[in-house]
Amino acid sequence: xxxxxxxxxxxxxxxxxxxxxxxxxLICIYAMIDAVMVYYNANDQSVLKxxxxxxEDAAVLRELSDDAVAWVTVDGTNIDYPVMQGKDNSVYLNxxxxxxxxxxxxxxxxxxxDGKFKDTYSLLYGHxxxxxxxxxxxxxxxxxxxxxxxxxxxxxxxxxEEYKISFFAACKAPADEDVIxxxxxxxxxxxxxxxxxHAAIFEEPQGQAHIIALSTCQxxxxxxxxxxxxxxxx
Length: 234
Hints:
By secondary structure, the chain is an alpha+beta fold. 29% of the residues lie in helices and 25% in strands. The longest helix is centred in the first third of the chain and has 41 residues, at 2-42.
C-alpha cells in the first residue's frame, strides 16, 4: 500500500515538474518572439519609402499618415525616422507610424508644440531601444568624442521646410523638469541658462532662434531622461 502511494506521489510530482517546465519553456519562447518583434518594429525599413529628400517631395509624408509632421535624420546614427504628433503625448508611445500597436512606438513631437515647427522650442520624444534604434543612440552623446563626431542632422517638415540641425548640448534631466518638459512655458533664455548649469556637454550655440531637443528615457525604473539639444537653421 505504501509503495503504491509513493508511486502515485512520484507520478504527480513528475507531472507537476513537466507542466512547470513546459510553462517556463513557453514563456521563454514568447519573450524571445516579443523581443524580436520589438526590434523588428524599431528597425522597420518599409517606412523609408516615405522619407522626403528635399522640399520637392516633402508631401510624400502625407501618404504615411495625417499625423506625420516631419522627418528627422541625425548623421552617422540610426536616427532616421518620421516624426509623428498625436492629440496628446500618449498616442505614439506604443503606436508605430502606420497607427499599429508597437512597443517601440514612434518618434513624436510634443503635442503642445507647433506641428509646423514655428515655435522657438520644439521637443521630440523616442523610446530608448537597443543597438541605437529609435532614440537609443542619444546615450552616446554624453561622451565628448561621440558628441563631436555626430553634431549634424536634418529635419524636413511635411510643409516642405528643410532645416539643418546643429547640436550644442547633451544633458540628463528628470522628466518633471519644467524648463525642459513644458514647451509652452519655456523660453530660450531659460533653457540656455539651465543647460549652462546642468548639461554634461555645452557649447555656446550659433544662433538661438529655434532650439530642438531629442529626449529618451534612461530606464523604466526612474524618471531620468537623456536629451540632446540643437539649433534649427535653414
